[in-house]
Structures are given as structure tokens and as C-alpha cells.
Amino acid sequence: MYFNKEMETMPRKKMDELQLERLRYMVDYCYNNTAFYHKKLGDAGITSGDKFKCLSDIKYIPYTTKEDMRDTYPTGMMATPMKKIVRVHASSGTTGKPTVGLYTQGDLDQWADQVARLSYAAGAREDDIFQIAFGYGLFTGALGLHYGLEKIGCTIIPASSGNTERQLMLMRDFGVTGLVATPSYAVYLGEAVAESGYPISDYKLRLGLFGSEGCTPEMRARIEENLGVFATDNYGLTEVGGPGASGECERRSGLHFCEDAYLPEIVDRNTLEPIGAGETGELVITTLAREGMPVLRYRTKDITRLNYEPCECGRTGVRMDKVMGRSDDMLIIKGVNVFPSQIESVLVSMEHIGPHYQLIVRRGSNFMDNLEVKVELTDAEVLSSYGELEQLRTTIRSKLHSVLGLDLKVTLVEPKTLERFQGKAKRVLDLRNAAD
Ligand code: DLL
Questions:
Q1: Hey, where are the domains in the chain?
Q2: CB within 8 Å of 255: residues ≥ 6 apart
Q3: DSSP label at 402?
């Protein structure tokens, strides 16, 4: 059993006290051990954690941003001597310097414990055989889940991402029961299972621990059907340690935060002022126990909501809603805010079209942005009838219109023509700055 009753069912008041004590310690620790926070906190007039009388006093701490991470690359946020750092991870970003995560042995132990707790809450057990189809390497996902699941006692097959046929072979030959992957890769694996020539009964999958990118309920339903799994959502980011920040339990009603390790807040994404419980805004995270690279009030840019009600599973930790999108990903089309996930929900629930789509943004001559939605057909037969194709296109347009209030250009493309992803999907093609 991997359940920390004390931490996972702690009454709210006691958890607030624990977090306050850890926050005070963290402020002192950051001020005294990193040049970056010594300056940042000092400039804000904060030289000691003693001044923090309640958790909401956290609002006096300035935010830490991705730019801060880049400016201090590679070790400017390190709080211990390098010899205490036993692991380095980095973000998957493709432009500029990556953002890094630096771990002491204590951080690795705590990280594995968090991932183990969340994975257990999701249903992972010691007799499970897990195939990890996240890319191993600098990315936090693979090794994070690897050590967490190993702690529960699961058998791990570190397949890494790619080589889809081999993935399926390993699943069949070892009777793999659990899959760790991005939702996009899980979609791809689901198609591959159907085309593998082996009956679904040759696959013993039952549980999917997915994460690292968003996944609408509609997309999740497809994955569950194609792979025969119960799928849970898992969240985290390199800057605060990787996966293990929050994850769904078997009830799937929000992602439980590991609150002894993280203090989450929601702030208004325009004013950056803290907002009330239950309101939607940008998630900000403070690490409460990291030694190698502690981070105070990191602006994740992820849009979500927090729910402090205890969960039916018995855990009392705050839960966050599934991430609605990143504020960076929000498109403004003819004055309307559009998150790609809203479009995904519409497309994935329709017949004849698959879970594969692409959103192309262009700047029109009136300086307004236009959006084209390219959707892949699952059913090549529709292609033979112009009437049916047009009918389908019109239905998609009108469904998108009813959800977004926008009339978007919809293009249908042949089966298997859009790119498949083995890691995080890149669905938005931004041509706004492209030469005509
Ligand atoms: O994706 C860490 C991770 C690995 C989480 C494996 C879960 C499982 P990064 O590569 O630094 O770290 O990307 C972090 O990915 O700010 C979100 O925008 C997005 N993200 C991560 N998990 C989810 C999720 C890992 N469950 C960035 N839902 C974050 C939606 C997610 N978005």
C-alpha cells in the first residue's frame, strides 16, 4: 500500500499550519542560499520568513517566471553546492535555453514518494507491469514515473517513446497492465493496437497514467476505448520538479496536489492578483520542500481552478481542475478567446472524424487573426461522396459555431495524413509571422 494517511488526509487547518511553517522555512532557505532570491526577496523587503503570519501573506513574495529561469541558466537558482546535486533535468522547449531542474538525493527521494502516492491513488498496484512510453532523457516524465512506480513495487519496462511496433510487442509479450505516455501518444498507440492484427484480448492493459499535456474528456474516452484502459491525468512541470505535483485518483474529480510539497495558488492572469477559491485563473506554485532548486511563486501560465473540498476518496488535499490550456496557447480570433481544448472537445465527439486535427492561425489583411481547423477523416468512404463531405464540413462548422460563437474555416483531410506525435502534440501551426 502506498498511501500516506497523515499527509493525504490531513485536516485543512492542520495542512495550512504545516504549509505556513514550510513556507517560512523556504523563504529563509531561499534568501540565504541563492543569490537570485537573496536579491529578489531583498528588493521586496523580505529578509526573513518570520514575517509570514498566514498563508495569504505569500502575496508579498514576487513571482518567479520562466524568464528568470532562463536568465539564471544553468545553475543560478541552485541552493546547494553542485556536489550535492545528483540529477539534472530540463524542459522539452525547443527554442532558447532550456529551463532546468536540479535535484539532491533528498529531492529525488521526495519526488519518487510524491509520484508513488499519486500513482497509487490512480490505481497502480505492486503487481502491475508498467510500460513507460515517455521519452527518457532530460525530460522529467520518464524517470519521474519510473522511480515513483518502482517505489510501489511495480515492474517497469522502460520502453521510452517511439518504435511503436516494439511497444506493442512488449505489451503483448509481458502482459503489460499499465501504460505511461502522453495522451497524444496513447491515441497513436490505440490506432496501432487496432491495426496490429492481434485481438484486443492479447493486450492486458488496464490502467493508463497519462499527462504532460492536456487531454479533453472526449479524447480520453477514445483512448480508453481503443486501449482498454482506465485513464488518469497527471500534472507537473520541470521548473518545480516534474510529474508528481498533482494527479487524479480513481474518482477522477480533479487532480490532487501533493500539498506537503507544493503550495498552489490561483491568480488573475491579467492583474496577477490572487483570486478567490473556486475561480479560474493562472496557477502559481511554490515548492515547500525542495533543496536543490527551490522555487517561490512560479507562474506556470496554466489555467485552472482549485477546489478545497475533501474528495470522496477520503483524501483532503486541494484538487485542481484539468488544465484548460496555457495562457500562451490562447488564441484571440475576431475578439473571441479560444483554447485549442474547446475545439478538441467538439471534434473528438463526432463521427467520421478522428482525434487528429491541426489548427492553423493566420493574420488577415485587416490584422485580425483567422483560424483554420484541419480535421482528419477516419472513414475514407466519406471521401467518395461530395455531398456527404460537404454535409460533414457544415456540421462541424455549426458545432464549432455553437460552442465558440465563431464561423471557422474547416478543411477535411484524408485518413492518416496529419502528423502523429510520440511526445507532446503540436496542434497549433502559427503562420502569423510567416511571409505570404
Ligand atoms: O510535462 C512534467 C510531466 C511529465 C507532467 C509527465 C506529467 C507527466 P514540462 O515538459 O516542463 O513538464 O511541461 C510542463 O506541460 O506547464 C503544462 O502546460 C503542461 N502539462 C503538464 N502536465 C499537464 C496535464 C512536464 N496533465 C507543462 N494537463 C505545464 C495539461 C499539462 N497540461
A1: 1-327, 331-430
A2: 233, 234, 235, 246, 247, 248, 319, 320, 321, 322
A3: H
Ligand 1 centroid to Cα of residue 313, in Å, is: 24
Rounded Cα–Cα distance for residues 146 and 419 (Å) = 28
Strands (E), 133-280: 155-157, 178-181, 207-211, 230-237, 242-248, 255-257, 262-267
Average pLDDT of span 294-308: 97
Q: What is the CATH number of domain 1-327?
A: 3.40.50.12780
Output the pTM of the full model: 0.96
SS3 label, residue 174 = helix
Distance from the alpha carbon of residue 284 to the mean position of ligand 1, in angstroms: 14
Pocket test for ligand 1, best of 69, 213, 285, 304 (most atoms within 8 A of CB): 213
Max Cα distance, the chain (Å): 72
Tens-place pLDDT, residues 151-198: 999 999 999 999 999 999 999 999 999 999 999 999 999 999 999 999
- CA 322, 341, 244, 260 torsion: positive or negative? negative
Q: Which three cell numbers stand for residue 241?
A: 520538479
Residue-wise pLDDT for 228-285, tens only, equals 999 999 999 999 999 999 999 999 999 999 999 999 999 999 999 999 889 999 999 9
CATH topology of domain 331-430: GMP Synthetase; Chain A, domain 3 (3.30.300)
**Which residues approach ligand 1 with their CB closer than 6 A?**
91-92, 140-141, 211-214, 233-238, 242-243, 300, 302, 323, 326
Omega within 30 of 0 (cis) for the link into 74: yes
Burial degree of 335 (CB within 10 A; 0-12, 13-18, 19+): exposed
Q: Residue 436: pLDDT above 60? A: no
